[in-house]
Structures are given as structure tokens and as C-alpha cells.
Amino acid sequence: MCGICGLVGQADSETISSMLGTIAHRGPDDSGVYVTETSRGETVGLGHRRLSIIDLSAAGHQPMSSLDGRIWLTFNGEIYNYLEIRQDLISRGHRFRSNTDSEVIIAAYQEWGEQCVIRFNGMFAFAIWDITLEKLFIARDRLGVKPVYYAQTKQGFAFASEIKALLTLGLPREIDLSALHQYLTFLWVPDPKTLFQGVYKLPPAHYLSYQRGEMVVTEYWDIKFDEDNRHTEEYWADAVLASLRAATKSQLVSDVPLGAFLSGGIDSSSIVALMYKATGRQVNTYTIGFTSEDLSYDVIPDDVKYARQVGKLFKTNYHETILKPEVFDLLPKLIWHMDEPIADPAIITSFLICRAARETLTVLLSGMGGDEIFAGYPRHLAVKLAEIYNLVPSQVTQMIVSALPASKPGPFNSILRNLHKLAKSANLPFQAQYLGYGTYFTNEEKQKLYS
Questions:
Q1: Where in the chain is the domain with CATH 3.40.50.620?
Q2: What span, in angstroms and rounded, lies between the C-alpha atoms of 215 and 421?
Q3: Of 134, 149, 160, whose CA–CA distance to 46 is shortest?
Q4: Beta carbons within 8 Å of 117's beta carbon, 6+ residues apart
Q5: How many Å apart are CA 44 and CA 430, to the nearest integer?
Q6: Which of 20, 66, 136, 302 sits at 20 to 30 Å (Cα–Cα) from 114?
Q7: What's the CATH code, domain 3-219?
């Protein structure tokens, strides 16, 4: 990952460098600052911390300008189809001085303006300063893999990869109470809000333009749920596999060593298999396991044995770490990195895997997102179970639910919690039912907390 930041208003090199200092961990390979002045007397600054992945030479230094110096870019992420777009742009008369995907973004913006984003297949958050139009253009990838936050500060309009960079500009550290209300519902804060009052996150598949003090946020893509019943299940199975192969292959474009997370589950195991099939080379894999004591609190069996089997099957360069109790010493560091609370213990394992892998690798592929796409969470199963649950007379289900104990520490904690959610939500309209499965504190419970 890289780190980006910027300011339109009262920017100078010292201010941008201070912002970059808080996100130096995002880009250890290089850093850069660009500052210019507008016709209105404002100063504009862009900052960048670089983690080199494609074209490791100095030609990839950012902020990067167009050949004519009118467009300046700071970019975090990777454009997987940049080579195809580059060829298209060359045929249209554009010239390039590097082999970076960053320069392709600049040329694409010159050719298609804000609509360039619809051509990008990748994970990205980038900002462009257009000198001619005196406009700041910020875009985020379709699924929001790469973060970008923004705020109106005393110095002007600011953005950054992390909230902590914005706080260097003197923003008051006050809680947005409406965002806290949302957090207690979902255990994360939906966009565009954050828990910090006045700090916002650009939603996935959106871009933002800021020009002469006016900000406009635009959605450029949304997922479609149109049903297509023209083909057989076998056809769709083949189509999904082809898409997974293409997606994996596109993410193997790198000038640095890469590997994969391997939990032992279907998602990460599939990625490892696809990487091996695509390259024919040994894949570096990283696995986190748990002690038997920790596993006693979970009814789900340990996945490490499956990770070991996958490692042997595909002859991976297998690395395994067992989570120890001292992991709690990491919590202050993890909280600092996260900026906002997210009630997901996976941040601990992700951090430990990345820390171990960083000794030899720069890029790791993972199966993250698989459960969302292929309905792998308990809330998805609950939708099906509700159909059966609602066939049972309510008098019977009420007796069963009232006999269930409350959630408590132990291997059946999550099962009891989910059964209570099912009982509360099963007979509701579909939208309310699904929300009931995926939310936590009810409004009644929150009101008790607030009082």
C-alpha cells in the first residue's frame, strides 16, 4: 500500500510533510511533496508515501505530473488492466516515460476526464490536481479496498489515506454521536461518516471533485442484481471459475515478491490453487493458528489442519504462526493503525500475518470478500433457516426460544447469539429480517446505554 494526502487552501511543504509523517508506515520506499498556487491565491499541496510494486525505478516517484506539467497525481493502489489501457492511450497519441500504472491514470484522465475511472479494474484511491481547471479530483475503487478520508479544516479542504493525517491540521477530536449510533448497530460506521465529527470517508465507487470551494460527490458504479435465467448452473460455474482465474492472474503482475494468506478455508485455499495453476511456481503462504485453549471457546474446528493439507497439495513455501496470549500487547498499536473501531478480531491475525510476511514479501493475496460474494456468513444461512422456522407454529418456537440460555463465553456463544437473532427476526419483512441478522444492539438496547 501507499499513503496519499493533500490540501487545497493554505498548503505548504511543512504541512504536507507533517501529514505524511503520520502515514509513513504506508510507504517506506519513497516520499514526495508537490505545492503550487492557484489564481485565487490559494496554495495546493499533494503528498505521497510510496511502497514500490510496479516499476521500482525513480520514474515512479510521486506526486507525478503529466508530460506537460498540467496534471499532478498522488495514487495508492494498483490498476490491474493498466497495460491494456496504456496500449489504447498510445494508439490515441499519448506518450509515456515510465512503465507505471500511475502514469496511465494521468493519461487516462487527460483523455476521458472524470469518466476515466469506469475503465479502471483495480483497487485504488487517488487524487489529481488539474492546474488548468484548478480542480481537485479524488476517486475510490468500486469495492472500497483502498481508503480515503476528507474534511474541511481551518487550512482548507484536506484528504488523506488515514484519519490521523487529517488530525495534524488541528481538527477537533470530537465524536459524531450519530455515527456512534450507527456503530452500535453494525459494529462499524457506514460511509460517508466516521466516528470523528467533521471527518468523512469517500464511499466505494464514488469520486469527488473540489473546485473553487464547491465539493461534489458522484457515484460512478453500482452492483446490479438482475437475474439471468438463460443459462444452466454448469454455465455459471464455469463462468465463475473463469472470472476467478482472470482476477487472480491480473493480481500477479508485480515487480516484487508476492504470496498469499492461507487460512485453510475455501476462499484462501482457492486463491492459492489458482496462483499455483497460473504460475506453475511455488507459492509463499502464511497461516495463523490458535492454541487449544483459545479453540475451546469456539465450536468451529481449527482450520490449520486444512491449511497444512493445502500447503502440501500445492507444495507451497508454508509459514505457520500460532497466536499467543501476548497478542493483546498489540492492541494499542492496532487501534492506532485502524483510526476507527471495527469489531472484527481478524485485524489481529491479518496484522501478524503481514508482519511475518513482510520479512520476505511485499504483496499478499487473500480470499477476503469471498463470504460476501458467495453467501458464506451465518446471516446468509439464516435467510434459508427462517423459511423452515416460520413453518413451525409460533407457540412452539416461543417455548423453544424462551428456554434458550443467553449468550455466554464458551464454544456455543456465537450459536446462541445467532439463534436469538433468528428468533427475533425470522417473521419480519425480508429487508428488516436481514438487517436483524447482521446488526447487534437494538434501538431499545442503545437507549438504555445512552441513559
A1: 252-373
A2: 41
A3: 160
A4: 139, 207, 220
A5: 49
A6: 20
A7: 3.60.20.10
Q: Where are the beta strands (DSSP E) in 171-293?
A: 199-201, 206-211, 214-219, 258-261, 284-290
Question: Contact, 139 vs 207, CB < 8 A?
Answer: yes
Q: Which residue has the cell 454521536?
A: 177
Provide mean pLDDT across the span 55-84: 93
Q: Which three three-digit cell numbers place residue 232? A: 444452466
pLDDT tier for residue 342 given thresholds of 50, 70 and 90: confident
Rounded Cα distance between 392 and 280, Å, is: 53
Grid coordinates representing 281 are 511456481
Pairing status of strand 258-261 against strand 284-290: parallel
4's CB contacts (< 8 A; 6+ apart) are: 46, 47, 48, 49, 74, 75, 76, 125, 126, 127, 148, 159, 160, 161
Cα dihedral 229/233/237/239 (nearest 10): -30
SS3 at position 146: coil
Alpha carbon distance 62, 220 (integer Å)? 26
Question: What are the start and end residues of each CATH 3.60.20.10 domain in the chain?
Answer: 3-219
DSSP sequence for 14-82: HHHHHHHHHTGGG-BSEEEEEEEE-TTS-EEEEEEEE---S--SGGG-SSEE-TTS-EEEEEEEEETTH
- pLDDT tens string 252-286: 888 788 899 998 989 999 999 999 999 989 999 99
Residue 431 sits at the vertex; the CA angle it makes with 430 and 436, to the nearest 5 degrees, is 95
Contact 125, 119 (CB under 8 A): no
Least confident range of 11-15, 195-199, 370-374: 370-374
| Buried-exposed string 18-40: b where 16+ CB fall within 10 A, e elsewhere | ebbebbeebbeebbbbbbeeeee
In the prediction, which pLDDT does 294 show?
Answer: 64
Q: Tell me the CATH number for domain 252-373.
A: 3.40.50.620
3-state secondary structure at position 376: coil
| Per-residue buried b or exposed e for 251-271, using 16+ beta carbons within 10 Å of the residue's own CB | bebeeeebbbbbbbbebbbbb
Of 229, 2, 240, the C-alpha closest to 123 is: 2
| Residue 183 grid coordinates | 456503530
- Would you state the cell numbers that stand for residue 218, as one nine-digit string? 458522484
